[in-house]
Design brief:
The structure is a single chain. The protein is mainly α. The protein has nine helices and no strands. Helix 1 runs parallel beside helix 9 and helix 2 runs antiparallel to helix 9. The longest helix has 29 residues. The chain starts with a helix and ends with a helix. Belongs to the nucleobase:cation symporter-2 (NCS2) (TC 2.A.40) family. Azg-like subfamily. Keywords: Membrane, Transmembrane, Transmembrane helix, Transport. This is Adenine/guanine permease AZG2-like.
């Protein structure tokens, strides 16, 4: 259903068509006792449902912020992980930024785009700062294409999305209860409409 709603919204060029599909599937998945519920009658489902009912919650990152240690840094596992994350992050960032530049019409004749060097610096700096705060790897997100698909073409789009992300920090019980199958159709449609 989410795929159909999202497809129909894109076909009819309805603003926010992707969001409607996500919201519909999420709302259906929040009902308990159905075959598609996000809160099945198992211990994990019960725990998720208890957390969901809080609606508003905020966790400090005091247990992970600044918890940097270089003990046992010189082991092969650490270097393999570091090389893997570096390789994956560089490839993901490159693919995402060049795809977004192509979608937005910002590409140049040489295959690059204006501000490319600065964009890599921002991504790398964010990764370093995020690591010292103890969060997972920071990466340029391909979901930007959804904003561009809806008409966003300036940095103001990113600022508004950033503000929404900040507000969402306080509603983690709700947003962490959005099932993966609600997001999948939108990401598939982004890939179908804009092959990288």
């Amino acid at each position: 259903m989410g795929f159909i709603i999202t497809s129909y919204g894109l076909m009819k060029e309805i603003k926010g068509g992707m969001i409607y599909g996500i919201v519909f599937v999420t709302m259906i998945s929040w009902f308990r006792g159905t075959s598609v519920t996000y809160f099945p009658n198992i211990p994990l489902g019960e725990n998720n449902y208890k957390y969901f009912k809080k609606v508003v919650d905020f966790h400090l990152i005091k247990s992970t912020a600044g918890a940097v240690s270089f003990n046992n840094f010189n082991t092969s596992e650490v270097w393999v992980a570091l090389a893997t994350l570096f390789y994956v992050d560089v490839l993901a960032t490159t693919g995402t930024m060049h795809t977004m530049a192509k979608i937005g019409g910002f590409g140049n004749d040489q295959g690059g785009f204006e501000g490319e060097y600065l964009a890599y610096l921002v991504d790398a700096g964010s990764t370093v700062v995020g690591s010292t705060l103890g969060v997972s790897s920071i990466a340029t997100y391909v979901e930007s294409s959804a904003g561009m698909r809806e008409g966003g073409r300036t940095g103001l789009t990113a600022v508004i999305i950033g503000l929404y992300f900040f507000i969402s920090l306080f509603f983690i019980p709700l947003f962490s209860s959005v099932p993966p199958w609600a997001l999948g159709p939108s990401l598939v449609m982004v890939g179908v409409n804009h092959p990288g």
